[in-house]
# Entry
Amino acid sequence: MFYLKIFFMTKIKNFIFILFISLLTFSYSEASDDIINNIEIEGNQRIEKETVILYSEIKINDVYTEDLGNNALKKLFDTNLFSNIEIGFDSNTLKIIISENPTINLVNFRGNSKINDEDLLVEISLRERSIYSRSKVKKDIEKMLTLYQRAGRLSTEINPTVEILDNNRINITYEITESDIAEISKITIIGNESYNSSKIKSLMKSREKRFLRFWSKADNYDPDKLEYDKQLITEFYNNNGYPNFKFTSAIAQLIPNQNSFEIILNVNEGEKFNFGLVTAKTQLEKLSTEIIIDLIPVKEGILYKQDLIKESISFIKDQASTFGYTFIEINPEVRPNYNTNTVDVNFMINEGPRVYINNINIVGNTRTIDKVIRRQVKLSEGDAYNKYSIDLSKNSIRALNFFSSVDIKEERIEETDKVNININVEEKNTGEVSLGAGYSSTQKTTISMGLKEQNFLGKGQKAKFQANFGDTTSTYDISFEEPFYNNKRLSLRGDLYSRFSDPTSVKYETEDFGLGFSIGFPLAPQINYSLGYSLYTTEVKADADASNYEKLLAGSDTISSITNKLTYDKRNSPYKPSTGFLTKINSTVAGLGGTTYYIKNNFEFKSYKRLSKLNVGSFKFEAGHLDGFNDEYPPVNSNYKLGGQRLRGFKSGKIGPKSSDSYYGGQYYYLTSLETNLDLPIDAYDITSIFFVDFGSVWGLDSRYGAIDDDHKMRSSTGINLHWDSAIGPINLVYAKALQKETTDSIDSFYFDIGYNF
# Structure
C-alpha cells in the first residue's frame, strides 16, 4: 500500500511538471507570435528603407501591439513625406506600405502685379523638385501673406490649386487677389518725458508717410513691424536705466475714408535706476564666486542696462564650459530697490540635469540622401546632449555648401531626460556652369569654362571639368572626389589633366600631361592630413632665340612625386569666413621613379576677424621653397611665380628673376595680403567691396646657366575688388595700383571675370 501511494504521488508530480512545461511553452509561443522578426517596406521610390524604419521608431525584436502600430502611423504622417500609409503584421513580419507625396513639377503665380514671382519664390519652401505637403502649402501661403502685409496690402487673399500630372508629379498655382496699400499717416507718442517723440520715432522701423518717400516701404502699416517697434523702444529704455518701462497701450486705428492708419503709443517710462548689490551663488566647484563677480560686466553703481545682464549670463556659460560644465542653469534674480533707485542682481548658478538625444530627424532634403547629412552630425542617438557639438554640427552641415539654410532645434520630450534633434535644411543648386573672361592693357583676353557638381547624385561626391583657353595657355582638368569612402571619414580624389603654356614672359613653351591620386583623413577635430601621388610628363621646347638657361632646360622629363599635406582649419565657414584661421603645410618630394629629383615646401596662413556687422578683416601669409637634389635642377615650370591674382597690380609671372626678356620665377617666395571686406548695404544687390594691400617677392635661381638678374626686393600694391552676386552669376572686378616696383616689372591694373550658376 505504501509503495502504491508513492507510485501515484510520483505520477501526479510528473503530470504537474509536464503541464507546467506545456503552459510555459504555450505562453512563449503566444508571445513569440507578436515579436517583430522582419520589417518590409513597400512603395518607396526616393526614400530609403532605413529612413522609413527610423521614422517609424519600430525596431526588430519589438513586440507588436495595436498601440505600437498606431504610434508608427502618427510618426510617419508627421514627417509630411507620405500621402498614405498602411501598416500590417503577419507571421512575425511588419509590413509598411507607403505612398510618397508627389514631386512638384512647376510653381505658378496668378494675379500678382505688385509683388513679382521672384520675390514670392524667395518666401516659399515648396519649389520645383520639392516634395508636396498640404501643411507646407499652408505655411507658404502664410509667408506670402506676411510679405504682402509688410508691403501694406493687408487684405490680400491667396488660394492654391493643384494640377495632377503623370509619374507622381503635380503643378501648384497660387491664385492671388492683391489689396490696396494701407499707409501710416501719423504716429503719436504719449507719456514720454525723458526722451522726446522724435527720438522715439527714430528707433522705430515704422515711419509716417512723407512726400517724395516713394522709394521706401517704411510708411506701410504692418502689425508685426509695430510689435517689433515696441520691442525696440522697450530695449532702448531698459538699456538706458529704465527697467520698469512699459506700454500702457499701443493702438493702430484705421482712419475712415483714407485707407491709412494712425499709431498711438502710450508709454510709462518709470524711474531711472543704477545697479546696486551684485552677488553670485554657484554650485560649480571649479567656478568660484570671486571669478564671476570680478569679470562679469555688471558692476555696482553703474547705470542699469538689461543687456549687461545678458552679457554676464553668456560670459558665465563660456567660463563654465572651459571647466567642463556643459549643462548649467543660470537664473539672475533681479530685485529693484525703490528707496535707492537701484537694482540688486544675484546670479544663481546650478549644474543642470544631463539630457540625452532620442532621435535625430532630418527634414527638407529632397535630393541629398540622409546619410550625407547624418555623417556631418557630431552626435548620435543615445549620446549626451552637448550644445558645442550641436553648433559644430550646424557649421559642418553648412560647410557642405549644399543648402541655402540650415536650422537645428532641440525638442524636449515631456517627462523624460531626452530631446529630439530636428535638422531642417533648404537645398540649393549645387551644379555650376562657369564662364570667365580676363583682360588687361598688357594681356590679351582669356576665356575659361567649367562644369562642376558639388553634390553628385545627392551623395556628396564632387565632380568637375574645367577648361581654360587663351593665346598663351590652355588647360583641361577632370576630377572626382569621394569625401566619405565606405561611409568613413576617408576621402579619395582622382585627377586627370593636360596643360599647355606658351607665356610671353619666357622664350619657351611647356606641355604637361598627367594624373594624380590622393587620400585624406582627420587626425583630430579640424585637423586633416592627406597623402597624394602624382605622375606626369613635361616637355619644354625652347625658341630659337632662347637663353642658355632655357635651352639647357629643354627636353622631356617624367615627374613622379608624393605630397604630404596638413591642414588646420578653425574658420567659422570655409566659403565666406568671418572669424578663425586656416593653416596649411605642404611638402612634395619628386624622385620616387621618374627622371627629376626635387623637394618643394609650402606654408600658408589665413586669419579672419569680424570688425563690425558688415565688415570683416583678414590677414594672409604664404611662403615656399624649392630645391633640387642629386645634382638635378627642378623643371622650369616648378618655379614659383607671382603676379595676376597672386600679388595684384603686376602682370602674371612678370616679376622676379629674369634674363633678357624672359622671366623664370624663383625657388623662394613670400606673399602677404591685408584685406577688409565690406558688404555694401544696397537692398537690391548683393555686392561686397574688398580693399586690399598686397606685398611679396620671388627670388633665388641657379645662375650657373648664364647671367640672371635676381633680387628679392619687395613689391607692393593696393586696390579694390568688387564682388557682385548678380542675376547672371558672380562678377568680380579688380583694380590695383603698384606701390613698390622694379623697372623690370610689368604692370597689370585691371581684371574681371563673370560666371553663371544653375
